[in-house]
Design goal:
This protein is mainly alpha-helical. It has three helices and two strands, in the order H-E-E-H-H. A two-stranded antiparallel sheet has the order 1-2.
Length: 103
């Protein structure tokens, strides 16, 4: 799929989806209001794609009670002076070993 081909080249900026398809397979109940952001309606013929989210590390930062941290808000990404082509194929520390879309 084209979206996976494009986004997998950017592992340091969400990378490829962690899951494509039925949200139930990753424990997401689409009938509930999301914890953050707005609900998304999936229309007939559309296939939902799910990416890792910056909200989880934001909660970790909040709980760490650091005096200062720079991050983003849902729907408002952090902007830096790095071009997309410079970001392409940056290595990410650690390794994703469990991606639901591959299981």
């Amino acid at each position: 799929e084209k979206v996976i081909e494009i986004t997998k080249a950017y592992p340091a900026a969400h990378g490829r989806p962690v899951h494509v398809g039925n949200p139930d397979k990753i424990g997401i109940d689409v009938s509930l209001k999301p914890d953050y952001g707005d609900s998304v309606v999936v229309h007939d013929g559309e296939v939902p794609h799910f990416w890792a989210c910056g909200v989880t590390p934001q909660n970790a930062l909040r709980n760490a009670r650091l005096p200062f941290a720079i991050t983003h808000a849902p729907g408002h990404m952090f902007v830096a002076d790095i071009l997309s082509e410079q970001l392409k194929n940056w290595s990410v520390p650690g390794k994703w070993s469990a991606r639901p879309c591959e299981e």
